[in-house]
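Your task
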Amino acid sequence: MSLLTFTEKGIYCEAGDFYIDPWKPVPKALITHGHADHSRYGHRQYIATKASRPVIKHRLGPVNIHGVDFGEELNINGVKVSFHPAGHIIGSAQIRVEYKGEVWVASGDYKTEDDGLATAFSPIKCHTFITESTFGLPVYKWKPQEEVFQEINDWWRKNKEEGKVTLLTGYSLGKAQRLLQGLDASIGRIYTHGAIENTNEVLRKQGIPLQETVRINKDVNKKDYIGNLVLAPPSAAGSTWAKKFKPLSIGMASGWMTLRGARRRRAADRGFVLSDHADWDGLNEAIEATRAEKVIVTHGYTDIFKKWLITKGLEVATEKTEFEGELSELNEE
């Protein structure tokens, strides 16, 4: 019997009688992070990191959620469980499960580049590793984030010189805060869409330092936006809401901007390749660092990535889940 199995409700540990990131309501849910495809409403009890607990409560309301520190060991019906940094977004975790000497790690979503906000990814040795494969193709190789932020700030300066508003999009939880930290506030003011600012407020209350922002509201004069930057969710691009900022230039930050045509399909003038998921090299390095003998590949380019890992001598399986990876950026709440 496998320590973790994939069921119609989610990833299940029969020995401990709990689920990891279940997509249907269950009695006990261990949650890797606060994105909507991993932390869903309806569970009787939630367990997550203390850093992700506030934003999960913000999203789901007054749910019963217990917060733990990274590395803190829990004993759930004789099964040892602990949460370890995934580097994906603030509070995101890999979940280590140990029973009778067997160790599995469920990665959730992860990235290996340290963004200075999320606790940096830490590989955990295990027998079986459950990995995402959102960007599991060799074409996906990220430039250092400093170079991407330079591109974004140069674009903002150019827009300011041309008398335009700069509209930059990124997912409200995670990507928006990462973008915010990389923006050069000496260029101008940073205005935020309500969905992003609501998340910013939750994180600031946790003591997380974020750059100064101005919430967009009806009292702000339209001419005040000229030369400044508006940070909004991806769903705002091409929307009626965005039209009030004209003249404007729209940019989108996502790993999908690697693909030709992705920017055009999202009604953006510029695309910046910046992802909160591991690229091809990051996925391979992370898997190798776990020393896992077996790898289970979930959401993303599962079949292609499986074939590649088999050539490296690993035992590999694929499993279907309801996780979306960075597709969630295109399906903003």
